[in-house]
Amino acid sequence: MLFFDGWGLGPNDRAVNPLVTAPMPTLRALFDGEMPTLRGNGHFDSARATLIPTDATLGVPGLPQSATGQTTIFTGVNAPQAIGEHLGPYPNAALRRLLAHENLFQRLVAAPRRVAFANAYPPIFFERLARNKARRSALSHAVHAAGVRYRDIDDLRAGRAVSAFVTNQLWREHSADVPLITARAAGRNLARLASENDLAVFEYFLTDMAGHKAKPDLTARVLEEVDQLLRGILDETCLDDVLVIATSDHGNIEDTSAKGHTRNPVPTLLIGAERARIAPRIKSLTDLAPAIVDLLLAK
Ligand SMILES: [Zn+2]
Q1: pTM of the predicted structure, to 2 decimals
Q2: Closest by Cα among 67, 69, 36, 33 to 50
Q3: With 80 as the cut, is the pLDDT of residue 30 above it?
Q4: Interval 187-196 mean pLDDT
Q5: How far is the CA of 67 from the centre of ligand 1 (A)?
Q6: Domains in the chain, please, with CATH?
Q7: What spacing in Å lies between the alpha carbon of 298 and ligand 1's midpoint?
C-alpha cells in the first residue's frame, strides 16, 4: 500500500494540472496510455488496474488536511466529522486517541497478519522519539500503536526499507552512510517487503511538498519519481497474488493555480487481479480500512 500525501484528481487541463503532461509512462501504461483525470467522477478501468475517484472532503467544510485524512484512511472512522474540522499536518490528542485503538494495522496484527511499515527513519528520529519529541504523521502513529516497528538506517542499507526521499540522496547530504539508489530500485525493495508480509505500507510526502511549492520543475521531478517507484514495484510483483493499493489524504499537487490543498477527490489506484474484490466498496476515505481488513482476513 502506497500512501501519497497531497495527490488529488484534477481536471484534464494542462494549464492547471501538471499530471496531464507529467513524465509518468508507468501510470499511463496501466490505463492504455491515458492519464486519469477528473471526468464526471467515473472510474478508470483497464485490464490491469482500476482508479477510483475517492471523496476526501468527508462532508466537512473547508480544505481537507493531512492528520484527519490519514486518520480516516487508516481507521475507517470519519475523523474530520468526529472532531468537527479538517486538521493537519500532525494529529492532535483527539486524533491520536482515534489512532490508538482499532486502527487497520492493529486489527491485522491481532488476526494475526504480518504488517510492515516500509519507511526508514534516521537516527535523529529515534533520539527524538525517546525524548517524546518526534513529530509523527497520523500514519506513523497508527503503525506504532499496532506494535509495528519503525525501520532504521540498517534496514535502509540492507534494502529492507525505503526512505521518504526514496533515492537516499538527502540522507547522504547529511553524511549518512547509505547507498544512492534509483526510485525504481526502491520500488523493487518495496515489492520484496510486500511479498514477505501480508501488508506493507509506505508513506511518501513529497507530492504534498511539491504541491505547496508549486514549482513546475520540482513537481515534474516528484511525479517522475513516483512513476519510477511504481515501475520498480511492478517489476517485482506478481499481480495474480498481490494487490497494489495507492491512495492519498487530500488533493494538492494536481492544481498549480493555488499552493494549498484542494477539495478534489483523490485517486485510489488498485493494480492486480484482486482489485475487483474491493473496488466497488471504495467511495470515500472511510472505505479503505474496512475493505483492506476484509480482504486480508479472508485469506
Ligand atoms: Zn496530507
Answers
A1: 0.97
A2: 36
A3: yes
A4: 98
A5: 7
A6: 2-297 (3.40.720.10)
A7: 30
